[in-house]
Amino acid sequence: MTRFGPHASRRDIAGWISILGRVVLRLFGFRSRTLPGGMHIMERPARKHRATEAGDGSGRDLLFIHGIGVDVTSWLSIVPYLGRRHTLRLLDLPSHGESEDVEPVDVESMSAMIVGAVDTLPASIIVGNSLGGAIALLLAVRLPAKVQGLFLLSPAGAPMEPHVFDAVIGQFEIKTYSEAREFLTRLFATFPYNSPVIAPFVLAVWARPSLHRLRLAFRHDGLISPDQARAINIPVFLSWGQRDGVLPSVVRDWLVEHIPGLQRADPDDEAQEAHSPQIERPRSVARRILKFVG
Fold first, then answer.
1. CATH number at residue 289
2. Tens digit of each residue's pLDDT (9 = 90 or more) over 165-211
3. φ, ψ for residue 3, nearest 5 deg
């Protein structure tokens, strides 16, 4: 074991910034713990509210799952707008943040690791972005008693034609500074003015061997089947930014076609958003989450 422990490969420049982000989350009242199987989670309990005519004053449990290449700190911007009525949990996926690496590196092992960890948590409404949205859909299929609803932000997980899948997964083969800046143009609705500063962090993340191996483990047939999607019978809200340059719209269309009763975001909201709106438009996304939860 190295001096940094099992996460030494993540102690690059991006990893140290992530540590700083977790410090800020602690200032917002979050605390860390490790779930069975080695998955890291940050939690903040709800504050108790007096009962009102509209309800008993109790909140809900919300579980947030990030996309590939980031970690719990990707939700930092949205936390101030979520209030204290609900219990918030931010999960680090395997091989991300402070969670252990998945071994062996394949989709089934990753799925089993996540399912085992989430099965120890209270039933929750899951908020998932990108790969986190795909994991949320998988959890709704495999742990239906633990999932009360899904709020999905540009989720992956749907089957794709092999050539479409290859193009999507190829975006994460980032080896040069120019490729990192190009990736940022697809990720955000507005090209970030500080992209010259962010690009080195993107390069550092995708130089990690664990993420490279995990990226190559995904398959074009998705994480759920059409029959599994049709069997999802909980409230599902889908927000898909019209400026999303990371995932193709065929993924969105597949989800709309196969998940019964799926709710869609307001077109005016989607028109202004890209792949990770919780970073660019946190107030708007928080408003929709709270409305869905209510």
1. 3.40.50.1820
2. 999 999 999 999 999 999 998 999 886 666 677 888 999 999 999 88
3. -65, -20
